[in-house]
Amino acid sequence: MLSLAALFLLFFACKNKTDVGAEVQKINAIYTCAEKQIGVSIDSAIAILDSGLVEARALKHDSLIVAGLFLKANCYANQGRSEAADSVYSLLTSNPKFNTDSVQLYRVKLQYAHFCQLTGNSQKAFDLCTDALRFFRQKGNDKATVLGYIYLSDVYTQQNEFTKAMEALTDALAIAEKIDDAKSLALLYGSLGKMYFGQQDYEKCLDCFNKMLEYNTRLNDIENLAVTNQNIGTILLIQEKYDEAENYLLAADSVLSKAGLNSKQVHVLNSLGALYERQKKYNKAIKTYNEVLDLNKQLNSPNVQSNVYINIGNVYYDRRNFDKAEEYYTKSFNSLQEAGETDFRYYYENMMFLNDEKGNWKAAYSWARKFHSHSDSIFNIEKYKETENLRNAYEAEKKDLQLANLKVEQEKNRARLLKNRVLLLGTSALFLLTLIFSLIYYRQNRLKLQSYRELVKKNEELVEANTERRRRLLLGDKAKPLIEKENGGEKSVLPEDLVQGIKDNLNDLIDRKFYVNPATTLNETARELVTNTSYLSQIINDSFGCNFPTFINQLRIEEAQRLLQSPEFDHLSIEGIGNQSGFKSKSAFNTAFKKVTGVTPSFYKSNSKS
């Protein structure tokens, strides 16, 4: 009888274990489905993850709960919902309930460090990264250690500590070579190559890029193969090794052409055209530039077209065919006008030199006057904006001082009333006290209301000024390479043509009001611009001094200001205006609007000009 009971217990225990195993497989399948959905719709992926988390909590399976929350945090980060992502990452790394699996915990810490670095919290990123690195080194987990060193290098680079960044990459390289991790090695040699490029050590830079090319070939990474070939070609062009440079640039063009990556192919062909122009192979240069124009028919970028016309004009100028040069300079000018540009200094300068070469002194003098007048006007606009910024800062400080003085005066009045209160009788004392406080309250409110109205007026003026400033930062000046500084010296990181291409495309996205989509994220924007999140974040930070979420928020607030000022949108509620501008809720809109402008949307609407 006892033997039969034991058999029953064994049967039910095995059945229960089988059921739990099936549930675990089911939840893992749900998480896999969510991961596949991330590239299609992050909201859908989060919904799928939530369903898996419900089942994991019902099963009381902490490891699966952590895995689901980790994926959810990554989804929030990709969606640009920084606060939500930070909240989940923080929960996973600080709640003892989830710290049963130390390896899993430190993987979360490592990803959290990368998230903090991307969102600008470099100190927290450093602390998390070094903590995770210490753990993975002790455990001998080589792949995780390599990833940790790469993230640590990014943190050091963000802090302008380039020597430490190089040391971190070198340590990672030694481990990656030991385990022969091709993907990590390709990434590491690319990062090292950029470091050496910034130091103008072109031989070491070439060596790194050649090794990067070798690993990308092993991985059959088409896009990075093209980028690596272009980087090698660019360095050889700097070293005036034209034949070798041509081979690599042609290889990059071939790869991009087969992959259909037209926007990247444009930059490669422009480099090829410049190469042929240096070699005085003018016919090949013009043919290559015309290929760029053909590609641009699909891209439809007036700025690309304008740059190519200038390049072709320069080729004809070098060939002393001044009529043709003038024809293409004029085409470039027309393209700039189509793009809504207002800076025509380079066009005026080219026409000045062209007429000087032709011996047409009167025309050359006329173009020279246009060039200097245009340059002066742009300079004066910049100075005016700087003066206005200083004046606005002064006015704001003066208002703050007035409010502070008003508060001091109010405190004095209170003290005086308290001192004399014993001398006052009954109703008369209460009446007098009420009257004094009413007058103070009325005066304070009137000053506050006047101050807020002036603040609305200033914000109205700043909307167009900010738009013009942003356009100028993206398109008004010739793109410069993004730079890093080390020990007082400047070192190039990203090529200027790549930077300008990203800036041009970003400006087009802004013109199309991409930011009014509440689901806009850094990843999606980078994908739309055919670049990566690091380049895009760095360009936005260098150009506007802020991170991506702050940049998007500013665009949405400016859009809301325009809608609130326009009578065409009077039929919309405040919540409707917020939705039209890209905000998901009325509370989020009110909070963000007041933080940027200093007043609420409803006050702004009732006090703005129609």
Describe the structure.
There is one protein chain. It is globular and about 100 Å long. It is mostly helical and 610 residues long. It has a two-stranded antiparallel ribbon with strand order 1-2. A hairpin with a 2-residue loop joins strand 1 and strand 2. It has helices at 2-38, 42-59, 62-78, 82-94, 102-118, 122-139, 142-158, 162-179, 182-198, 202-219, 222-238, 242-259, 262-278, 282-299, 302-318, 322-338, 345-358, 361-420, 426-476, 496-511, 522-528, 533-544, 548-565, 574-581, 586-597, 601-607, and strands spanning 482-486, 489-494. It contains 26 helices and 2 strands. Mean pLDDT is 79; it is low at 1-15. Helices cover 82% and strands 2% of the residues.
In terms of structural class, how would the helical and strand content be classed? mainly alpha
Rg over CA atoms: 31 Å
Basic shape: globular
- Going across the biggest sheet, name each strand in turn: 1-2
* Count of distinct strands: 2
Strand content bin: under 5%
Q: Give the helices and strands as they follow along the chain.
A: HHHHHHHHHHHHHHHHHHHEEHHHHHHH
**SS summary, helix count:** 26
How far from one another are the termini?
93 Å
* Residue-averaged pLDDT: 79
User: Can you give the helix content as a percent range?
Assistant: over 70%
Major pleated sheet: 2 strands, antiparallel
Give unreliable regions as ranges.
1-15
